[in-house]
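Why predict the complex rather than its parts? Because the way molecules touch one another can change local conformation, and only a joint prediction can capture that. The input here totals 1350 residues.
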Amino acid sequence: MLHPWTLLMSVLLFSFLSAPRGPSGVAAPALDLQALIRDARAEGNLVVYHPSSRINVAGGIFEKMYGIKVRGTKMGDPEQAERVIREVDSGRVQVDVIHHEDGPFLEARLIPRGYVVSWIPPDMATVIPERYHSPLVDKVQPRIFTYNFETYGSACPISNVWELADPKWKGKVILRDPALTPANLAFFATVVSSPQMLDKAYRDLYGKPLELTEAPVGRIKNAGWEFLKRLFTNDIVVMGSDEDIGDAVGAAGQKAAPIGMVTLTKLRDNKAKNLKLGTCKTLQPFMGYALPEYVVIVKNAPHPNAAKLWVHFSLTTEGISTWTIADVGGFSANPRVPTHPDNEGTWTAWEKRLLPIDNKRSMGLRQDVLDFWLKYGAK
Amino acid sequence: MARIELENVGKTFAGAVAAVADLTLSIPDGSFITLLGPSGCGKTTTLRMIAGLERPDRGEIRLDARRLFSERTGEWVPPERRGVGLVFQSYALWPHMTVEQNVAFGLEMKGVNRQERRERVRWVFELLHIGGLERRYPMQLSGGQQQRVALGRMLAISPDVLLLDEPLSNLDAKLRLETRVELKRLHAELRNTVVYVTHDQLEAMTLSTEIAVMNQGRLLQLAPPMQIYQQPATQFVAEFVGHPPINLFGVEERRGAEIARSILTFFPQLAARSRVVGVRPEAMVLLPAGTVPPARSWSHAAIVETVLPTGSEWIIGLRLGDASAFALTVDEKVREPRQPITLVVDLKHFHFFDGEGNRVD
Amino acid sequence: MSDEIVYKTGGDLRLRRFWNRTSAVWAQPTVIIAAVLFILLTYLVIAPVIALSINSVQVGIRDNAVIGLEPGVFTLYFLKRVFSSGVSRVLFWAPLVRTLFVALMTAALALPLGAALAWLIVRTDVPGRRWLSSAFVIPYILPSWTFAVVWLTLFKNRRLGGLPSFAESLGLSPPDWLAYGAVPIILAEALHLFPFAFLLFGNALRSLDVQLEESARVLGASGPVVARRIVLPLLLPALLAALLLTFTRVLGSFGTPYILGSPTRYTVLPTALYSAFVTGSTGVSAVIAVVIILIGISLVTFDIVLVREHRRFVTIGGRGSTRRLAKLGRARTPTAIAVNLVFVLTTVVPLVTLSLATVMKRPGVFALHNLSPVYWLGATIPAMPGQRGLLLSPDIWHAAWNSLRVAGLAAIFCGLGGLFVGYAVVRLPQARVSRYLRQVSFLPYLVPSIAFAAAYISLFAVPRGIVPSLYGTMILLGLAMSVKYLPYASRTGISAMMQLGNEPEEAAQVCGASWPKRMARIVIPLLKGGLMTGALLPFITGMKELSLVIMLASPGTELLTTQTLRFIQYGYSQLADGTVLIIVAIVVVLTFLAERLTGSNLASGLEGGA
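Output of the joint prediction:
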């Protein structure tokens, strides 16, 4: 039914429209805080994409301190990446700063290709531990398995991660959708990269060697892939936000509450929503993973000075307090910032119980992990 | 002064045969000329080319000394600057304007001032006897009233040339006659050049100073009405004008050849060129069977087949051997089906056409 | 004078003739309009689809991160991934099968329901027929995913977490199959789409010449025989049109399957496209979008062929007034109750549920202490950090303003587009160009919304020659909406121009009116009614559009509908419910005003697509 003209125009347009693109990098000058504040004020506004809805609270503090209005939007990593790339490519950048949790993508693509710049204020270079410099981390938090203490009492009903893949917990383990939460993909990739740990845990739990059944094409079978396969096929439940998982796990009055993986910060809802969330402190060989939150400035940001000021602000007590002091769960990358009393220990103590994510290695495994998830988890 | 000249004008629509082919026509000032022909003969296209709504492919159109279109020089005057009036078959009154606004529109476009406009509109309403309808909308008018308003809308701008495209075809029979009278009166009064398109021969005959009969994009004959009727230039013209239609007998036809040959024996000097003989129904005199025909006439035995009374006259269907024919008569005597009669035609009433359909004299 | 010299040779004359004719063609306003439309529509309709097709075989920057090929490189990787790889079942085949299943089941529910109601209201003496005939259009006027939001509020279970549903508060725990996935999606789509069948069948029944049935009766056919042999075959075109409309709607519907399918990962093609898009698989999403477009086009082509077969039978006119209504007799009251119950279920229950949900602290707990205006008027809301009551929220006001602006832009564009497309298509002497314009202006109708948005991103996300990038602008939203809805307006425009004919304009022309005057004084005033409908329909549809804008809206250009989805994603269900109510209120008021203004039944324009 298409007209010949339609076809002709199609051919003509085809040649015109196939055009790729590519941006480049930016350098960082030295810091004069007073000058920065002045210049930032002249810009008047700031736009931030952030994984947490409390960005508006932090924005309010910033506005009070510097008189610069912050328009913060809660936004997940994939959408952030999508928007930043589109905005930079289109030459119509609207956002200044992003707080991003997809470290692998940030390191492998966004920074090398110049979409964002990791900038550490010179005065903070000596304060922030070096491992958080590049890309700059403003806060870290544990994303851990939690249970309902009203249902199960003071101790987590599981002590070994392999129990999550056990039929006993079929349909009762909740995770963030890995397809929409790249940090979880990175976590799975790290699991795949730690086969000895999982192999040992299996033998500890069941007292017999683990039988390996499958790995993606081109990968070697190991205890990590096996764990993922059994976890995914155990009718795993996925949700879109930690909010929902926390509610599902922690809601009062449940007979058979599920286990769910959320950031430690959800423990605040024990008060706000009368939840009964408890952490699986004794879970072996890990309670979850360490989730760094990176703060980077977008290329050609419309308010570059306000953006720098915001980055500086994020490394100070005022700037990070919304997540680390006002509420439980977050740890500032700045060791001088005090931590919340309910944090169940210092970050150093936490780190020992968490899988650390290797950004570079996890990027290389991402496609396979995602496909493995799609194959077994997404049904 | 408004004399229209069409010179070798041609127009072909995309992917079709020529709507108008090489038409040359001169329309004198003050004449009432009718373009007559069956639908699709190119008469409306011709009218629209004069109005400028259709752009010819070739030739030249002139209005007096002004070239409206010329293929040669590329000259082209768009319709809004031609100063001709056109009344559409559908009237095309603007339904969102009152009658008065419809009539005043053209004057407004000409930039005529309010005062003059009002006078002019009043004149039109008086001329057409439609006073009192000013504030009505077209939808609230009868067909006849709409027709007058459509006419008035064009008359208001006092066009040198008034073009009418089948303006009576949407009216009932009684109204049609009245309007014909009216149009004739208006033409007599206003004396502008009128080009009138119709496929109705009666309208053409009664209204025109001259009739241009067209078929398949060509002009077949341009002549005063009675000449068209009495001396049709072609077989097509003869057939198209006249009701009931002319009776034709072809020398080479399967039926009627015998009749044709019998007639042609009276015209030895024409017999060689003629292929068809025609005689109008009213020229057929029906006499009792066996009557001896008068001198200088042709006669033939016939049988009455059908009798169709119209009120004032009878249309009689006849059988002549293997041919059939219609006669028109006011004679009450012959009207029984299956009645044998003698058919008599005065020799001066025959028409002859050659193989191409052209008149043979 | 100089003519003779210049035109002596035949070659010169031919050239001159050619030049004369060409310049004459280009001097016509119609031709200029057509040329502008030709370029504009080609760029706005054809180009995006081509850009999308290119994206399906070209590596994007985010794809590059996972597959390692340089951005911009051409590859068949995505085609392979979607159609034949270890994950193609999850990415494509399963969603395809589900889409077709949902579409079929929706049609199987919506068509009989719509047809039965149409018959009851047109042909029987069921009480309240006048009122019901407009009442049954309301479900279609509501945003398509209203029912989905309502369903979650009523029936969601612990799988989704968050606040309890009404059912849970009553101590029930709805099973997954009831709360999410195919069953509620089909129900929600059917409840939204049955008005199509209702309108199409109703109109077909009304225009059916009663003499056709009477003739059969006179020849000795009984009632059922007349129904089977005469009425049904004549209603076949309406049936096909309703079937097609339902099918294409489901094919392009994003909101309902997203809201109800996500919890159990019941993915259909539009949601598969969306999740591929948000997870950065531009290539995969482009492939899926192209497939959706192809299905859309083939469905309509199929329908055109079928309908052409059957159009021969369609009779127009007839003396409907002489028809006697079937007496329901003793069944009259029960029927009336049943019919009104449908209205209650499809309109009253959803709206009341939403309203209640927004004033209850804990959904479904019917107690005075549980009522709270906080979600409408709170300065802060417990457990929703950074949120304010809807009426105080600058985000909502901003989104509402954006929605009005975008829909307004679409309305203006469509109104003008309808006028000019209609004018050019009907008046242009060049039949081929005219046909091209008609087809291209209709093409957006065949492209399901979400795929259309994907195509727009492909084309407009980067600068192309003199066209700057429109990513993240209101203009992009407005443009996509305008072009997507253009078919409604251009159809109205074309049919209005056809009805008008050339003569009123030609009459003005011979009266001496120049082109601008003719347009201003004759054409536009006469087309006004049609143009208003052609503009208002996009405006109202635009206010509730989700599928088209979900991928195009960004934080600065959030619309009411995308804001609703954000609330759902955050788990702020009361705010989502409240925003839906705001949209419903705006749309219903607008529809009412529009009908008053144009004196027309807007609902009758809805079926214009078929």
